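2024-03-11 09:14:02 DEBUG pipeline.ingest accepted 1 chain
2024-03-11 09:14:02 DEBUG pipeline.ingest length=448
2024-03-11 09:14:03 DEBUG pipeline.predict start
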Amino acid sequence: MEFCQRYSGHFVQQGMNSVGHARHYLSGLLGTQRRKNIETIHNDVAQSDYQGMEQFISSSPWCHRDLMDQLAQDADETLGDSSQTGLFLDESSFLKKGKASVGVQRQWSGRAGKVENCQVGVFACLGRNEHMAITDFRLYLPESWAADEDRCKKAKIPEEHRIYQPKWRQALEMVKHARHLGLRYGWVGVDSLYGSNAAFINGLEDLGETFMADINKVTKVWTSEPELDPPTSPAEGKGRPRKWARLHSDSTARYISVEKLVEEEFETGHRQLSYRQGAKGKLSTRFWARPVWCWEKGWARARLRMLVVRRDADDAFKYSLTNLTDSLGWERYAWMQGQRFWIEHAFHEAKSQLGMAQYQVRVWKGWHHHISLACLALLFSTKMKLQTRSKVPLLSTRDITELLDFYLPRKGLTEAEVHAQIRQRHRQRQQDLDRRTNHRTGIPNLTK
């Protein structure tokens, strides 16, 4: 494919040419198999080599970072726009069994809606309306992993990455990297996990970024600008100097949760507005916005924000804060708030149609290689939709995989080959059962 050829230079490293394996793996991700791990891709894609692909994903020296940087710049050519495009940050979890997969532990899984044994990645997604491309990602390494040298060695984590870094700092790094690459977007969009983190939001603003950040209902704001007493120096008076600004004793600003503020003012101030395109046309609901201020102890100054609130058909509220406070108009605020929906759609497409969550690799390099190729498959799908939208406006990722399943070379298995594949799977399952049994009983596995 011409699309594959564009990225082929990344897969020629240290005298090794893995372009064929990359093409076969990407072809498998863009196929229609229910599961898309190395085994099923090998069984599906003509002329593919199982051991070659396994080595290509797990230990080949090609650099996923270089590939993702080119992908991001290509996505910018397709989607980049300084007013209509957003950079959306979100995390996604990958449910796993056992303790060997890199970064796995019991932690919150948004996919499951509860604490589960899983890996978590933090992702950046360039999006314009319904068209999305994942342009960057980081694997979250929990503190328990970063502190366990033996575990890190077994997962083959590079030494420079054997450190704990909070997810919000990983997200901030991706924003900096996006600007370094020259990606064009008008604002950064995040969910309440990141939007309710004041250090992250202030960090974005200090970088010069515009944001639309969802927040929790318990987030507190000031209804007017709080009057502050500035820090003091030793020369100003007796006693220990005060390092931080503090609230003036005569300040009349109210400090209130956004939930309580909405209870007081939403009903008399909201408007009916459209906020994004849905499957059956434009979606509209009730919106309300007003300026508020954010300030916490230790901050040098109060920060002006616009509180944007949406009440959906089920009467649930969505609360957001933005530092766009120059009277853009409620229609613009409503539209921007509604655009973060599409990163969830991108994750759904990548996981349900492109095999993003269906890998069987445990080590650091394997995870990053697989995820970057799944992101490449998503970009291909996005490009195809945009190129054909005038003639086929409803083309979906599933449609594309079904078309490619017809046009790309696939294996036509004989009866004997089907039986051989089943026997091989049974042998592998039995070996796994034997390993688990021997691990529980403490008996060494002496089978060859």
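2024-03-11 09:14:41 DEBUG pipeline.report Residues 350 and 378 are 6 Å apart (CA to CA).
2024-03-11 09:14:41 DEBUG pipeline.predict end
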